[in-house]
């Protein structure tokens, strides 16, 4: 572990890369003097991204699905500890070489083949962008309904709130990341305050911790629990499976490996568990107070009697959702789309593509209930992202031994050209992992493969890729 921590940083001469065809300033490797993020900065990044509405809904969805409070928290904690491992491993190359995710993918998938995992990751990010925008839009719709009562009877109020909030997101995308820095500093604290306020309200109205946390599990036996727990755990891993791939987009600004490792370990699992506890406790209290589990905090806030409290809370939710959306769901797909055509697609253009696709994915259907959110959305896309993570980690640590030729990552006909820009072994491995993970949807007898989609896809693609590439290395050695 000491050697892993002390891994030296590599700086690449950008004047050399300027002449290559797969380079633009948004995909450029960072210089040493740009790698200024320490442990605190990276931990703060994760705290800011973890304290969000979808984290709350993740926890409350487990309660609505039948878990009691400690079963839900255990599931969330375990999922986040598991996903922290690929998060730290994939971050290594970003910190060492200063390269973003789509450029790292060129080492294993090929200079053109990297577009396959980049686009799969980008499409998922577009879905998340749509989800966050829909949540913010519903908060805006509720806020306008309070201020203008006539608005509430308009059938298109929800859709209008969504479009208005979407336009606000697009404004900040066009203005660039610098324009949202001040809002980012306020977003997470706002949401934390709202969460704590909800917890206090639930404690008082629910009659204390006893009634709040005494809601029993709805599962009649161990078999029923495991049937729900396994896909739920996969969903928890799937929640951050996106960032576990594109973490190099952020870790390329880290001072050293120790900073990225400790920052993520400190910032991710503890924050997810603590903020999830608010979701768990408040949702449990709604069963006592209202007789039903209300898993959507926007819906819950509208039940408050004091309009001032509701207005302030909804405004806070919108600000926090906006900042989380830009940081977590625009940076990565914008880079991924730029990787398609580096000479023409800039960060802003990639961000606008993300915004448009975020509507087309129809996020209102993904948030129709907790089952569609956790078992449909989170588990479903994890079957695509798990295999990518397996290939990236296998290639970088076992095949490349953490040694990359950076200049060849940005040009054709170099070390990572493979066959016309595609490493077909990586493509075949990816397809195999996805196929095995998804076959459980078609064949009921092997449904467990889908329930474990991220894990199954990771293991299958990792193993097949390793065998393919080792055989290739052995064949070359024999020549």
Characterise this structure.
The chain is mainly alpha-helical and 479 residues long. The chain has one domain: Orthogonal Bundle (Hydantoin permease). It has 24 helices and no strands. Helix 5 packs parallel to helix 21, helix 7 crosses helix 19 and helix 8 crosses helix 17. The longest helix has 33 residues. The chain is globular and about 65 Å long. The two termini are 36 Å apart. The model has no long low-confidence stretch (mean pLDDT 85).
Secondary-structure map with pairings?
Elements: H1 2-5, H2 14-17, H3 39-50, H4 53-64, H5 69-97, H6 101-109, H7 115-147, H8 157-175, H9 181-205, H10 209-213, H11 222-239, H12 241-246, H13 248-251, H14 257-267, H15 269-290, H16 297-301, H17 307-329, H18 331-340, H19 347-360, H20 363-366, H21 370-399, H22 424-442, H23 447-451, H24 453-478
Helix pairs in contact: 3-14, 4-5, 4-15, 4-21, 5-11, 5-14, 5-15, 5-21, 6-7, 6-21, 7-8, 7-17, 7-18, 7-19, 7-21, 8-17, 8-19, 9-15, 9-17, 11-21, 14-15, 18-19, 21-22, 21-24, 22-24
Count of helical segments? Answer: 24
Derived structural class: mainly alpha
**What does the overall shape look like?**
globular
Number of strand segments: 0
What is the alpha-carbon Rg in Å? 23 Å
User: For the record, what is the CATH homologous superfamily label?
Assistant: Hydantoin permease
